[in-house]
Amino acid sequence: MSKLYVGSEVGQLRRVLLNRPERALTHLTPSNCHELLFDDVLAVEAAGVEHDAFASTLRDQGVEVLLLHDLLVETLAVAEAKQWLLANQISDFRYGPIFARKLRAYLGDMDNEHLASILLGGLAYSELPIQTSSMLQKMSRPLDFVIEPLPNHLFTRDTSCWVYGGVSLNPMMKPARQRETNHLRAIYRWHPTFAGQDFIRYFGDEDLHYDNANIEGGDVLVIGNGAVLIGISERTTPQGVENLAANLFKAGQAKEVIAIDLPKHRSCMHLDTVMTHMDVDTFSVYPEIINKSLDTWRLTPDNDGMMKAEKVPSYLSALEKALDIDQLKIITTGGDNYEAEREQWNDANNVLTVKPGVVIGYERNVYTNEKYDKAGITVLPIPGNELGRGRGGARCMSCPIERDGL
To answer: What are the positions of the active site (predicted)?
Structure first.
């Protein structure tokens, strides 16, 4: 059996987890999309077709594609997993004991295929055939959600991230995404692909309230050589970075963590929306955000089992040192200032590297793709007119679970 291990951002990608957008998108409306962290509503069929093109581009590159919906169905077939998920996602605290009990029983009787669709895609009160004496049920309107849809599950990168020989199950910042992590916790515990496999769970796997220690995978770049680059962003806190770093060091899986303090706004929600690793010595960068003025920290293990954080002069020199490279090649977003801003918004910098110098990106980002091409980076273009409305590119939509090191 191949090993669950992600040794870099650019080594040959071997296995990846995607989530084809389905039912959750049908529940997105102009009045609820912002609450569900989308800027717009997507054409559901077209988004599915675009996602299929992404998956087949990966398969053409010899990458094994796992789909979240299928993994969840197969996980629900394990009785213990189903019981745990229903207890956690349909808890007495969320629904009140009267409603929760009936709802758990109703969902528990469903076939696993249907149940997976509802857990991922949501359920409105108008679609619920059971009646209880619950105050919550009586006070809710027909179009209110009993179970909120999880359209952001499309971005499998964030919910969990594999770093060297283990995984972080990320405590997400926004309530609209927090239920996603439980699906991954169940899959990694009980699904036959993962159960009994030898890997470390660094963080986020316990039934705890992680308070302010938020981290999302879009901010985590496994740059190789035992180094990890993490963005402190709108959704990843310094507390989250320190907790993950401490556990990486404790497990002996990383030598250093470099943290960059990003501006806290939507256009650079995660580090990978403004910076990705494309070849051993090459990064794509949106220079309006990623520049020398950003505070950069270096975390390293200390002798007494603790760690120390020191401020370093620049992210560039920290990366060059970590990767043992004299000078990094930086490719900036293409076009004039207007075009560059537009293309960054459409995820020109959010590419997924499948092997050194070969990346998948949206075909609409013509100026930036041309720059990549001129710099010797091969871009495998995918359509993204609908998918891109969710503000995430190929890297956001993929969670590598097996990738070679440098």
So the answer is: 396
Query: Is the CB of residue 395 less than 8 Å from the CB of residue 351?
Result: yes
Q: What is the DSSP string of 153-202?
A: GG-HHHHEEEEBTEEEE---SSHHHHHHHHHHHHHHHHSTTTTT---EEE
117 token code pair: 């669709």
Q: What is the mean pLDDT of residues 210-226?
A: 97
What order do you get walking across the sheet with 282-285 strand by strand? 275-279, 282-285, 329-332
Q: For strand 160-163 and strand 145-147, is the pairing parallel, antiparallel, or unpaired?
A: unpaired
268 is known as an active-site residue: no
Model pLDDT, residue 124: 95
Q: Which amino acid makes up residue 405?
A: G
Residue 392 Cα to chain centre, angstroms: 10
Handedness of CA 385, 386, 392, 396 (dihedral sign): negative
Q: How many CA atoms lie within 13 A of 383 on its CB side?
A: 11
Q: Where in the chain is the domain with CATH 3.75.10.10?
A: 5-67+151-403
What residues contact 109, with CB distance under 8 A and at least 6 apart? none
Architecture of domain 71-147: Orthogonal Bundle (1.10)
Give the least confident one: 109-113, 254-258, 309-313, 387-391: 387-391
CATH 1.10.3930.10 domain locations along the chain: 71-147
Amino acid making up residue 343: E
User: In angstroms, how far is CA 48 from the centroid of its own chain?
Assistant: 18
How far is it, in rounded angstroms, from Cα 83 to Cα 64? 29
C-alpha pair distances (Å), 153 with each of 150, 181, 195, 366: 6, 9, 22, 27
| CATH topology assigned to domain 5-67+151-403 | L-arginine/glycine Amidinotransferase; Chain A (3.75.10)
**C-beta separation of 223 from 277 below 8 A:** yes
pLDDT digits (tens, 9 = 90+) for 157-211: 999 999 999 999 999 998 889 999 999 999 999 999 999 899 999 999 998 899 9
- Exactly one of 33, 161, 268, 396 is catalytic; name it: 396
Its pTM stands at 0.96
DSSP character string of 16-38: EEE----HHHHT--TTTTTTTT-
Contact yes or no for 277/230 (Cβ under 8 A): no
Nearest Cα to Cα of residue 330 among 273, 270, 276: 276
